[in-house]
């Protein structure tokens, strides 16, 4: 994810992973479940889902994939402090980037004679 992405709605949604969210869709339906993953296109994977169409009965589903372009709103628990979870997510991203940078530096620093040849 780019550094601009660190300050995006996607970062916020990624910080909400493993919490219960309610997602209103453009098709006037509602999905409620545990947010398992969010990708760079804001596509969501949820589990233990309750799906309620505009007209019809609520259906219980083990999981659901929601395309980002179909999302109208994402609601979260009022107990969650958005500023706190965003900062925690940005810290996790920085830690992962630091680990990756150290690994790349150690690979560059490895002596050439240690590399295998075909």
Summarize the helices and strands and which ones pair or pack.
Layout (H helix, E strand, L loop, with lengths): L8 H7 L4 E6 L4 E9 L5 E9 L6 E8 L4 E5 L6 H28 L9
Antiparallel strand pairs: 1-2, 1-5, 2-3, 3-4
Verbal overview:
- This protein is of the alpha+beta class and about 120 residues long.
- It has a single domain (about 5-110), classed as SH3 type barrels.
- Helix content is about 30%, strand content about 30%.
- It contains two helices and five strands.
- It has a five-stranded antiparallel sheet with strand order 4-3-2-1-5.
- Strand 2 and strand 3 (about 45-50) form a beta hairpin.
- It is elongated and about 65 Å long.
DSSP summary: helix tally:
2
Beta-strand level of the residues, as a percent range? 25-35%
SS class: alpha+beta
List low-confidence stretches: none
The CATH class assignment is Mainly Beta
The main β sheet shows up as: 5 strands, antiparallel
Count of all domains: 1
Strand adjacency order, main sheet: 4-3-2-1-5
Overall geometry comes to elongated
Find the CATH topology.
SH3 type barrels
Q: What percentage of residues falls in helices of 4 or more residues? A: 25-40%
Order of helices and strands: HEEEEEH
Radius of gyration: 19 Å
Organism: [Myrmecia] bisecta
Protein name: Sm domain-containing protein
GO molecular function: histone pre-mRNA DCP binding; U7 snRNA binding
Domain Sm: 8-80
